[in-house]
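About this split. The held-out portion is used to measure sequence recovery: a designer receives only the structure tokens and must propose an amino acid at every position. Recovery is the fraction of positions where the proposal matches the reference. Here is one held-out target exactly as it appears in the evaluation file.
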């Protein structure tokens, strides 16, 4: 004799219907975005208008287009030298920050040592210190080391201020990489360094792009350090060169706008090429493994 067990009827979960009042209409999304874009892009538009329209023109459209302001800035005001100096400082800061942060981030992610937690807290606390407060101590250090009026002082200062955030990002990214991958490489005969270069480093591309781009852009835009540590006009960077183009009694707005376009162009190009890597590197480095 068999016993038949009846199963209870399956009830579907009740879903609460979405009320028409809960739906967000498109204009509630697009209107704030349009206002934000208007507030953000109008200054850039006026900069382009002043940079490309002829001298003395009052038109709100840059027509006919002229490049006389760029010629004045690049050749007459020495902007070519400023651009070269900023490029050297930015690339050197990118390389030093990335290399040091890569080594330190790997140590923080893979090794346990005494004082590791206090070290991480100390790095986070340094982010609350404004750069202006460190001008006098840094100047005394660079004066002792004979690095004042040298581009290397800018590279060192930028690297020091960019390292805490870079270390945290890279260490967080390395924690998300399974440690078993490195152990498998060691079993196959690779040493720690070779296993790191073959296994971990290729997976760190988004993090390295994020760290390097932030280091480059911050050093490119930094004005305070370049103003305080550099005295020779031949070693000025782009932000300081723009400031020195402001006359005491008059301002050449066309040349100043052309210099602003030249200063903003590398940053726009960098973000255009690294946007996808930047978002991935920031999100992965911010997650605790």
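Reference sequence for scoring:
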């Amino acid at each position: 004799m068999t016993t038949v067990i009846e199963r209870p009827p399956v009830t579907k979960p009740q879903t609460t219907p979405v009320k028409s009042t809960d739906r967000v209409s498109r204009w509630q999304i697009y209107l704030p975005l349009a206002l934000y874009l208007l507030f953000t892009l109008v200054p850039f538009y006026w900069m382009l208008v002043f940079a490309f329209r002829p001298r003395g023109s009052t038109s709100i459209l840059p027509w006919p287009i002229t490049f006389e302001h760029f010629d004045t800035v690049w050749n007459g005001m020495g902007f070519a030298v400023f651009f070269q100096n900023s490029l050297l400082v930015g690339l050197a800061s990118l390389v030093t920050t990335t290399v040091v942060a890569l080594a330190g981030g790997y140590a923080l992610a893979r090794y346990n040592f005494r004082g590791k937690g206090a070290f991480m807290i100390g790095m986070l606390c340094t982010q609350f210190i404004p750069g202006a407060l460190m001008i006098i101590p840094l100047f005394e250090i660079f004066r002792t080391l004979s690095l004042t009026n040298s581009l290397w002082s800018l590279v060192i200062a930028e690297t020091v201020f960019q390292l805490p955030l870079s270390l945290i990002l890279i260490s967080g990214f390395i924690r998300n990489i399974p440690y078993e991958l490195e152990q498998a490489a060691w079993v196959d005969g690779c040493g720690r360094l070779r296993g790191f270069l073959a296994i971990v480093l290729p997976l760190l591309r988004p993090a390295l792009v994020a760290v390097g781009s932030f280091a480059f852009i911050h050093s490119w835009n930094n004005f305070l350090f370049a103003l305080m540590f550099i005295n020779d006009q031949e070693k000025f960077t782009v932000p300081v060169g723009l400031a020195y183009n402001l006359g005491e009694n008059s301002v050449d707005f066309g040349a100043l706008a052309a210099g602003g376009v030249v200063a903003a162009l590398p940053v726009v190009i960098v973000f255009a090429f690294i946007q996808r890597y930047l978002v991935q590197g920031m999100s992965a480095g911010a997650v605790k493994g």
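Annotator remark: Confidence is low (pLDDT under 50) at residues 285-289.
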